[in-house]
Fold each of these.
Amino acid sequence: MPKQVIFAGAGPGAIDLITLRGLDAIKNAGVIIYAGSLVNPELLDNAKPGAEIFNSAEMSHEEVIEIMEKSVKAGKQVLRLHTGDPSIYGAIAEQMRDLDRREIDYEVIPGVSSAFAAAAELNLEMTIPGITQTAIFTRRSGRTPVPEQENLKNLAANDATLAIFLSIADMDGLVSDLIFAGRSPDSPAAVVYRASWPNRKIVRGTLNDIAEKVRQAGITRQAMIITGEALSGQGDKSRLYAGDFAHGYRNPQMGAFTGKTAVYGITEKGTHKAAEIAAGLKDSALFIPEKFSAGFANAEICGTGEFAKTVEKNWTGFDGHIFVMACGIVVRHIAPLIRHKLTDPAVVVCDENGANIISLLSGHVGGGNRLSRIIAGITGGKAVITTATDVNGLTAFDEIAARKGWRIENPAKIKVLNTMLLEGKNIDLLLPEEIFNEFYSGIPNLKLVKPGEQLSGDGAVLLNAEINTDIPCLNLEAKPVAVGIGCRKDTVCKDIEEAVLSVLAEASLNIEHVKKLGSIDAKQYEPGLLEFAKKHNLEIEFYSPEILNSVKCPNISPVAEREFGVKAVAEAAALAGSGAECLLLEKRKFPRVTAAVAKYVKGGR
Ligand code: SAH
């Protein structure tokens, strides 16, 4: 015997996406109360003659219950037809409570949720191995508030696929929450309007452009928003791109730790875990006790009672120390060695099982937080981060400086500006636009300012600029370089770019460190070179043979001598442009390009 009231899912819209059981319920009902415009009215054609049909969009909850009660009393089978699946935003819980009070029994027939219909429209697997194994069904606050912990700002700090209901009206707010949570502006997003209906629309994009595309498509309601790397559909390939992003923190793809690490184990189990970690890190040394050292050919042995001495000896020689043991042991050993947060190495503690990876010291500048996330990726554990900015989903300013290799000119201001960031004060950021977009766009109260622009915030973070102002400023300095370039006629931009990025990488720098480019004046109309400079918004200077010959270069180029009457182009241009006396990186030769790097000296040419 069916129950007196049936709650059934009507599916997302298409009439053949209701279950057979749901369809039977329509056929057998004496009274049908259906949920407004998202239940396909054609389904109601299956109702038996004489069935009473109500649209709940025009009724209050009380009216719905009243009709249910009256109909049940009259011996009629009642069907409450919801869109999709009734368990998701179906408001069935409150109806059930009221039916309980009236001692009316009921049952639920599931339906195809619009989340699944939208995924089907997108040919999407929400849980792609290597990207995410989680799908979250959620919404933004509307008339029904969303608990704070479930705010997208908190909920989205991971790679899970998000199916977001009831939220199309404020796409800008939604995107800004997701970016706040640490999602990359480039991560894929899609919106499906009226999935499975004949007039369905699909809009695909990235977090960057999805709001605009939705506006252009004129979608304002009845739409499912799906976002997450799973949409890129690349499985393990995309995982590589995601770097060590597995642990719910901001800007993971920037999470590399490039220094040398020492990994220590003291117990037998700890030694094995330490060896696993050391094997997963690029440049690491393993320190373990002699008695557990069998089978670890590359390990360095700590003699009995020599652990403390080993740590002391290693302290300044490594950029990171990873201790697989209890925090207490570590704290006691490192306490006397700690000097300053700008110079101390990163210290990370990992338990023997690799479950908790605690960033204990130098989380930002020293890279401890990044290192612990990388180790969490190796052990499959959880990175335990306690720095306030990170746990609030913000990237601290000293962390940015560390990642980008910028010098902090006034470290006393780190705390001041990070606190302002945490407190939501207005901060002006004079940073390269890409970096602002990557780390800070969408965060209220942070404003990108351009060189020369008036500051209007309560504080400022300034890269390569000194501004006379009363507001607290954190001054950062990229250690700038000049790159000298020589190239053959008609070399394309891409070849020049590859060569320059390669020499920069060899000098552990990136394009943001480049203050200017230089070459010989014979190349001043070389299209590829000009395009490269323009693409990266870099100043390029062309020097006369006299100027180039006035600096002393380590390598003489017979080709340059023959063609232009100069001893060298790339090296000489790097030195001429930088004002430096010696090169950071001597000339490197590529098939059509030569490039050399020199540190820029203030007042360089
Ligand atoms: N129980 C329903 C959801 C009801 S809430 C389900 O499981 O699908 C209503 C919201 O669902 C809409 O705002 C929209 O976000 C989404 N929705 C319902 N039907 C949809 C459809 N056919 N296409 C896209 N989104 C839909």
Amino acid sequence: MAAKPPVLILLGPPGAGKGTQARMLEEDFGLVQLSTGDLLRAAVSAGTEAGKAAKAVMEAGQLVSDDIVLAILRDRMAQPDVAKGIILDGFPRTAGQAAALDALLAKAGQRVTAAVSLEVDDEAMIARVSGRYTCGGCGEGYHDEFKQPAKAGVCDKCGGTGFKRRADDNAETVRERLQAYHAQTAPLITHYECQSVLERVPAMGSIAGVRSMLAGIVGRVSA
Ligand code: ADP
Ligand code: ADP
Ligand code: ZN
């Protein structure tokens, strides 16, 4: 019987590199990135009921309620492409979400394959998040200082020239988000340590260096 598709979790504060690394793991391993932040931003843009409820909370740098996030995640996990294996980027973020994920996976006879904690310094995260921008065409992430496109103003991936910045990527909101991370999300590290699936990855180095450490872990756990 073929091995079950991996369920990987990327844990880490805002700016740790979850989105950047998740996109590269998609390329390297054919997995599907599932970002609750992206799903919530899409709901806000579409003006759905969930989006309306989430908007102000996100702008304030606080966590959206478990009910809303879980409803959005369940819908996304019902799509057929998740059968390739998933990388959860920015989910779970609370003990309630982690318990709900365990229950959802158990129903399908699955469990978390690995939860990777990207270990970084808070102070450096303010600079990472403040300089972040993405391609409006394909969503590729960039940074004013740390990851510029090869040709200024042109996306490396799709050739697009329209870029956007998130309203919540300012120094003040990032501090609030870092606090939310430490209070509500960092305790999940122990949850996954108890399940013997925790992998700690030092993530202050280069994007390429972190990518190769993650590739080693994913290759090992999905073998
Ligand atoms: P997260 O999804 O964890 O919030 P991102 O992947 O969006 O983080 O990365 C935040 C910003 O920092 C982006 O602008 C990205 O280009 C940049 N970045 C990501 N990883 C690194 C790294 N290892 N070194 C320097 N900059 C990085
Ligand atoms: P980052 O990449 O900087 O960590 P995200 O894009 O993952 O940020 O999330 C942006 C915002 O969306 C969060 O500050 C929070 O308000 C909301 N959000 C995203 N994922 C979750 C989640 N799993 N639970 C609660 N709120 C979430
Ligand atoms: Zn692009």
